[in-house]
Specification:
This protein has 279 residues and is an alpha/beta fold. The protein has one domain: Metallo-beta-lactamase, Chain A, CATH 3.60.15. It contains 9 helices and 15 strands.
Length: 279
């Protein structure tokens, strides 16, 4: 069984746990080590049980907890070569932990198969990840300015998609941010808008994805209800009912989200605890 839980997702910090059998990987460590270890404990996973930390890129909201966390547990850090260099510059005493993985390649990690794919973002060697195990597949697609062919290839056939819906474009344009920051967010190396994320989610659902988690929402330029409404509208236009045909949720920014359990890709009803089960 492949399981996936967002520990935090948003402009202020990002972290996610993906597990299969006894293999546990943390994807990004962008909140405090205390929050990460607390989230892991709630899931019954000790920090020392982590097989690796996968890092998408070196921005603060993806590596903020690395320094303290890796003092407690000397777990391998996997990222592209440019990202590894930036991590070693920003985080002390991790040179012996970093493991370079070229974007577009994959490797076996215990019960998991991990593949990365390049993403257009204003960071050195930025990637997303596709993680497979127990006959199921999930994809993490956040921190990208636009959807590339590599991104579309990555989400094809995935059972679960963690999909960026960062902002409402009009809210960014009319909001209080400096012009340079607005241009960064809206540019080709910024973040996906609700509409762009909805289109990516629609392409994935059309290809068989049965669970979509909307992620990396801006605190200033979005709300969970607004992001979900935009995605629901796009899916409905394609003939999908988000309340019946798929599981659609928004990852919380300040606490762990529900655990998704994936086994062979068919969507079953969620149990009372709020966990979504794919069997």
């Amino acid at each position: 069984m492949l399981t996936c839980t967002t520990l935090a997702s948003g402009s202020s910090g990002n972290a996610m746990l993906v597990s299969c059998g006894g293999t546990h990987v943390l994807v990004d460590a962008g909140v405090s080590a205390r929050r990460i270890t607390g989230g892991l404990a709630a899931l019954g996973v000790a920090p020392g049980e982590l097989s690796a930390i996968l890092v998408t890129h070196e921005h603060h909201d993806h590596i903020a907890g690395l320094a303290v966390l890796t003092k407690r547990v000397r777990v391998p850090i996997v990222a592209t070569a440019p990202t590894c260099r930036r991590i070693c510059y920003k985080v002390p005493f991790v040179d012996d932990l970093v493991r370079e993985q070229e974007a577009g390649t994959g490797f076996q990690l215990g019960s998991l198969w991990v593949e990365s794919f390049p993403t257009p973002h204003d960071a050195a060697g930025s990637v997303g990840y596709v993680i497979s195990g127990a006959g199921s597949r999930m994809a993490l697609c956040t921190d990208l300015g636009y959807v590339t062919p590599e991104v579309l290839a990555a989400v094809e056939g995935c059972d679960l998609l963690v999909c960026e819906t960062n902002h409402d474009e009009d809210w960014v344009r009319t909001g209080p941010y400096p012009y340079s920051l607005k241009q960064r967010i809206l540019g080709d190396y910024g973040h996906l808008s609700n509409e762009a994320g909805a289109e990516l989610a629609a392409r994935a659902v059309e290809g068989g994805t049965r669970a979509v988690v909307l992620a990396h929402l801006s605190q200033q330029n979005n709300t969970p209800a607004h992001a979900r409404q935009v995605v629901c509208r796009r899916l409905a236009a394609m003939g999908f009912d988000p309340e019946r045909d798929i599981s659609l949720a928004v990852a919380p920014q300040d606490r762990p989200g529900p655990t998704y359990r994936l086994v062979r890709g068919e969507l079953a009803s969620a149990p009372a605890c709020g966990e979504a089960v794919l069997c």
